């Protein structure tokens, strides 16, 4: 967490006021958040299932990313009734469900323009 008195925090708040895009990007920034949202949308809604799908993520990082997504109301966690120990599953909110096609579009954009792929200018653009 950043200190609220820090220059970083002040700059972030200033950017958020300029455009909501910056706030949206901040909500989903993080190496694993896009994949976590995607896998939950595909039914991998338990902690251990997410760990199986993301074998390179540590438990600590997964827990932190889930908590951050929950703090932004992208997902909620619910207890699974009649389980011992108490089971938890993660459910996307409407906000999270609306995010899935955006993440799909970002994935497609990344496939087209990933590092090393040729980029050309539109016919009417000049350097």
UniProtKB/TrEMBL annotation:
InterPro entries with a match to the protein in the record: HTH_HxlR, WH-like_DNA-bd_sf, WH_DNA-bd_sf
Protein name: Transcriptional regulator
Pfam families: HxlR
Entry keyword annotation includes Magnesium: no
Recorded superkingdom: Bacteria
PANTHER family for this protein: TRANSCRIPTIONAL REGULATOR, TRANSCRIPTIONAL REGULATOR, MARR FAMILY
Record-level Gene Ontology MF annotations: DNA binding
Domain HTH hxlR-type: 19-118
Key word Acetylation present: no
Keywords in alphabetical order: DNA-binding, Transcription, Transcription regulation
């Amino acid at each position: 967490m950043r200190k609220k008195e820090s220059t970083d925090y002040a700059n972030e708040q200033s950017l958020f006021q300029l455009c909501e895009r910056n706030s949206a990007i901040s909500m989903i920034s993080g190496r694993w958040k896009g994949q976590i949202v995607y896998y939950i949308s595909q039914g991998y809604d338990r902690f251990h299932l997410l760990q199986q799908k993301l074998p390179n993520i540590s438990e600590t990082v997964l827990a932190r990313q889930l908590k951050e997504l929950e703090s932004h109301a992208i997902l909620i966690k619910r207890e699974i009734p009649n389980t011992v120990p108490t089971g938890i599953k993660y459910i996307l909110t409407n906000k999270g469900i609306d995010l899935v096609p955006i993440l799909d579009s970002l994935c497609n954009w990344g496939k087209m323009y990933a590092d090393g792929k040729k980029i050309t200018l539109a016919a009417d653009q000049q350097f």
